[in-house]
Each structure stands twice: as C-alpha cells, then as structure tokens.
Inverse folding.
C-alpha cells in the first residue's frame, strides 16, 4: 500500500493545512448539531451564491464564512474562528515561503 | 453521553457574541490592561484573549506589533495556552514550554520561540469563561504567587471593562 499523498497546503513548520468546507461544517456540528449545522451552512452558502458541498477554494470559503457571520450570535463566533484559521494559513504560508528569488540570466553581471 | 467540551458550548459562545468581543475595534482600556500586565512581569507580550470554538481571538494586546499574530488577529485554538483555562476555570502556568508535556510540540514554541506563559481566566458575570489575560515570554521563567495575584487583579479590570459592553 502506498503512503497517503501529503496535503499540498500543509505548512510543515507549523503542521498546519488550509481550512476546508468540511472543517467549517464540522465546526458547526460541534457547536450545534448535525441538522442545525448543515442548515446554517446551506443558508450561508446560498446567501453567498454558492452550492453547499461545492465550496472548492479559499476565496469561496471566505465568502461563505462572511455570509455565516451575518447569522450573528454563537454562529458568528464559529465564523470568526474559520476566518482566523484562514488568515493564519495565508500569513504563515507567506512567512515560511520566504522572499522570491529572481531568476538569473546566464551571463548576467552581478 | 460525552460531556461537551466548554470550547464548543453554544451558550458560552453566545455570551462572547453578546459582549461584543468579536469586534475588530481596538479597545484602549483592554490594550492598557495588557500593557500593564506585560510591564508588571517584565515580559514582551500580553494578550486579552477570547477563546472561540476553533481559534483564539485577540481582544487586547501588547507587544505583538510586527508579529504575524498582529495581522491574523488570533491563531488556531489547538495552539492556544489559554484554552486550558476555559476547560479548567483555573490559572494556567507554563514555566518551560519546550519541556511541557502538552506544549513542547506547539508551533508557537517550536517555530515562534515561546518559552513561558501565565494566564488567568476572564469569567463573565454569568459564569462563562471568555478567555484569559495572559503574559508570554521568550525565556524560561518562574511565576511567583504575588505576581499571579497581580495578574488576577488586572484580569478583574478587563472583565469589568468587557461587562460594560453588555450595557452599552
């Protein structure tokens, strides 16, 4: 059996991967329950113009999270958690990537 | 039935929302409390933290300008020293993080150099632990009882300020 492929979004130094739609839904399930969590997520996706279960990238997850935040109350705290986790991944990915090294042309002078 | 982790308690999270603690507006009084905590301990960083279900949100801070934490406004809850107090309702002290059983592999320790931590819970008038007032350092350190008494007094000031948000 071959080893599972590594998550390309994982930041090794921090052992941290980018949050996904599944993570957001699981968070709602933990605070509420599966039925209410699914309903809240579906409504947030609808308000964001997205299809639940098909939130495929960070930009879409950010949109859905912003819509979820509009629910207010405890649900807004879940949305804030997702937002912080997304921001953390983006910031640490940039930090650990280091400065871009410009390509050097053959024969170029230093 | 498994008891609910206090981190995921909807009533606690509702209290955090009711107290306006998700606002990104800087509260100068909470900033001042954090600054005085850092000065009292002679440590570089202090936070008024709000522990959410999956992340720590910073409501007041001192010493994080220029750090990634200032840009993100918090970090994943699994890295949070403050989450311990939400679960225990007690102060939490780490004097030598690289040797601490729970935090020696914490990226804030392994990647960012945190070495010591002391935090006391911020408990609302309705009995919910909102987060902590904490101090953080980059060198191993012990914490004396009189220092923890001072930190508790500053935490009480922070809670008083936070409770004023409920009335406004």
């Amino acid at each position: 059996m071959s080893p599972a492929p590594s998550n390309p979004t994982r930041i090794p130094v921090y052992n941290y991967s980018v949050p996904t739609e599944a993570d957001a839904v699981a968070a709602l399930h933990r605070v509420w329950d599966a039925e209410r969590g699914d309903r809240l997520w579906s409504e947030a996706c609808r308000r964001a113009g997205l299809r639940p279960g098909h939130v495929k990238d960070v930009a879409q997850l950010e949109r859905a999270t912003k819509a979820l935040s509009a629910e207010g109350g405890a649900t807004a705290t879940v949305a804030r958690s997702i937002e912080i986790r997304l921001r953390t991944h983006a910031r640490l990915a940039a930090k650990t990537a280091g400065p871009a090294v410009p390509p050097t042309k053959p024969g170029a002078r230093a | 039935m498994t008891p609910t982790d206090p981190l995921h308690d909807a009533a606690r999270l509702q209290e955090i929302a009711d107290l306006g603690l998700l606002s990104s507006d800087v509260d100068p009084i909470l900033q001042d409390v954090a600054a005085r905590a850092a000065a009292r301990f002679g440590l570089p960083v202090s936070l008024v933290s709000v522990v959410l279900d999956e992340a720590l949100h910073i409501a007041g801070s001192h010493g994080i300008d220029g750090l990634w934490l200032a840009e993100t406004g918090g970090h994943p809850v699994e890295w949070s020293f403050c989450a311990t107090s939400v679960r225990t309702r007690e102060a939490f002290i780490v004097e030598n993080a690289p040797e601490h059983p729970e935090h020696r592999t914490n990226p804030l320790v392994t990647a960012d150099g945190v070495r010591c931590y002391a935090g006391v819970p911020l408990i609302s008038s309705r009995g919910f632990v909102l987060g902590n007032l904490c101090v953080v350092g980059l060198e191993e350190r012990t914490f004396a009882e009189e220092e923890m008494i001072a930190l508790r007094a500053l935490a009480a000031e922070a809670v008083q300020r936070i409770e004023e948000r409920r009335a406004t």
